[in-house]
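Now read this:
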Amino acid sequence: MERGSEERIASQMTTQRSGTGETEKGMADVEYCPHSGYFLSPQEVDGRKRPACAACGYVFWNVPTPVVAAIVERGEKILLARKRRWPPGRWALFAGFPESRETMEEAVLREVYEEASLKGEVLGLVGVYSLPRRNQVFIVYRLRVAGGKVNVGEELEAIREFGRDELPAVLEHLPPQAGAARALRDWLQMEAVVHGRFAKQPTCPPRGHRKGGK
């Protein structure tokens, strides 16, 4: 069995991070055991083929990676972020990966500060969204700006305010099943409940009533 070099092992364990919580290369690319350095090979573990090390018994479980994201509220509007090289019209949430010994709430506050130089206050959870194709769990919070002045972080191209009536246009440029799109739809529903912003439904005329007559 071929043994991998320490450099290759370190390289495969590196996760590339971005301001949208996307990974370009992650733990799914693991080929070597981080303990013994030997190749991992498919083995039957708990009813599924999983990469495992025959030398030491290590199993790579490839569990979903948590990603935290924020819908940042400032007054009656929310702030969205845009990355470089994104197609025209695409905006998304501030997002990133929790670090060691952080709570999810601490992580999302840190991400917003790093990307926008804004201090925030966590108002609550919007939702938790499974992204199986990315092998991620997208955890989205509502944040209220508590201080600071917007400064665009190095990973972003722009930060912009959006009113509620502008969000349908934003959603048109996001894949419907993307975590950001699902969270924005849920946030709009939450806002509608809180503020009573429901579209008026057409009413039916009384029974027995005919237009133009009794």
User: Anything to note?
Assistant: DSSP finds four helices and eight strands in the chain. The two ends are 91 Å apart (CA to CA).
